[in-house]
Amino acid sequence: MAHRVIIWGTGFVGKAVLRDLLTHPAYEVVGVIVNDPEKDGKDAGEIAGVEPVGIRATRDALAALAKPADAVAYFGPSAMHAAINIENLTAALRAGKNVVETTLGVFQNPKRVPDELRMPIEDACREGGVSFFSGGIDPGFGNDLLPLTLLGLCGRVDRVHTTEFLDAGTYPDQASLQMMGLQSSLDDPPLLATPGLMSGIWGGPLYMIAEALGVDVSETRENYQRWAAPSPIEYPLGRVETGRCAAHRIELQGIVRGEPRIIIDHIHRLVPDAAPDWPRPNSHPAHASRIQITGSPNIVQETVIADEFGGDGNAGGCLSTGMRAVNAIPFVCAAPPGILSTLDLPLIAGRGGMGL
Q1: By C-alpha distance, which of 186, 168, 205 is closest to 317?
Q2: pLDDT under 70 in the chain at which residues?
Q3: How far is residue 142 from each of residues 154, 161, 215, 323, 342, measured CA to CA in Å?
Q4: Which stretches of 181-332 are assigned E, i.e. beta strand?
Q5: By C-alpha distance, which of 250, 260, 263 is closest to 166?
Q6: The whole model's pTM is what?
Q7: Residue 24: how many other CB atoms lie within 10 Å
Q8: Could you give the CA distance from residue 200 to residue 158 in angstroms, rounded to a whole number?
């Protein structure tokens, strides 16, 4: 029996997920909630770029949540808008809908969530008698599910190193990348050099890996580097001037027994040839997720996710981010009420993806 799903949010991720779910045999889209007034009343098929399906999108979230549904798949604004996201998510949970979402990366490790964010979600889960799962790609499956799966192949683990290589020049949310440091002047203090910020964002999966391995992280060390453009550089979504940041590296180290043993790393380039001395992917000019485990055996896995239409890595990554959350819906619905993490879920193989 198909799970009934309300899609909340039809931005870059939500629109891609909606397109696939409208014909997916394991899910039935029963409602679509939008924020954009221009999408209000539009057919969901039109929003997704396919034929009309007879489902009208609405800005009236409470009316949509009043409909019978098993789950809400929430793709709201970025984590910079935590207050509105918490308001929307708790409304869905209190309406008795299980929720999967991709906006609040901190929830990927519920044990690391600050009380002011965690308690409203916990209370709403209890009130609605439902469960909540937050997924993503980074933080998310790129540095929890993928390394956790590979760690099960090892007899000894000396070090785990995950790296996100991002084709930042085509990434649709340029504002978020600029907030992190791309395009910044090297004369200005970088936001990600703020003590504790990197640990707050990516500490969740780092500590999750440590928990899975049964080791203690004594501290985290934060390293942030910027690479300045030697001359003006045009890239697909803009231009970076001489001396401003055209690539940055974000590295969070988990110290275990005095050594950096768990490392979550990011290298974002506005153009593929920026920062030529930094590591780069082997299987794509600019975009990949690499898991490197040193131990017995040594393992290197590099994953490239690409959109089926144009091969774009960012579009493919955003779709996979959404579908990772959606494909968890059957297990989230079956779980006891509360907040779930990757460690609480079984293997999710994407039932229905090849038809039923």
Answers
A1: 168
A2: 356
A3: 19, 11, 21, 14, 12
A4: 219-228, 233-235, 238-240, 245-256, 259-269, 288-296, 299-303
A5: 250
A6: 0.92
A7: 23
A8: 24
Helices (H), the chain: 12-21, 44-48, 61-65, 82-94, 115-128, 145-151, 174-180, 197-213, 313-326, 329-334
Q: What is the CATH number of domain 3-135+328-344?
A: 3.40.50.720
Distance CA 313, CA 119 (A): 36
* Helix, coil or strand: residue 249: strand
* pLDDT tens per residue across span 97-153: 999 999 998 999 999 999 999 999 999 999 999 999 999 888 889 999 999 999 999
Are 147 and 301 contacting, i.e. CB atoms less than 8 angstroms apart? no
Which string of DSSP letters, residue by residue, matches 149-185? HHHTT-SEEEEEEEEEEEEGGG-S-HHHHHHHTTT-B
pLDDT at residue 137 in the model: 86
**Two tokens, residue 26:** 């394991």
Is there a cis peptide before residue 297, judged by omega within 30 degrees of 0?
A: yes
Q: Which pLDDT belongs to residue 54? A: 96
Show the tokens assigned to 316: 């493919």
Q: Where are the domains of the chain?
A: 3-135+328-344, 145-305
For residues 248 and 180, the answer to whether their CB atoms sit within 8 Å is: yes
Angle in degrees, CA 37, 38, 39, rounded to 5: 90
- Bridging pattern class, strands 156-167 and 219-228: unpaired
Distance CA 222, CA 201 (A): 11
Instruction: Check: CB of residue 181 under 8 Å from CB of residue 175.
Output: no
Q: Give the dihedral sign, CA 197/198/202/207.
A: negative
Measured CA to CA, the distance from residue 333 to residue 319 in angstroms comes to 22
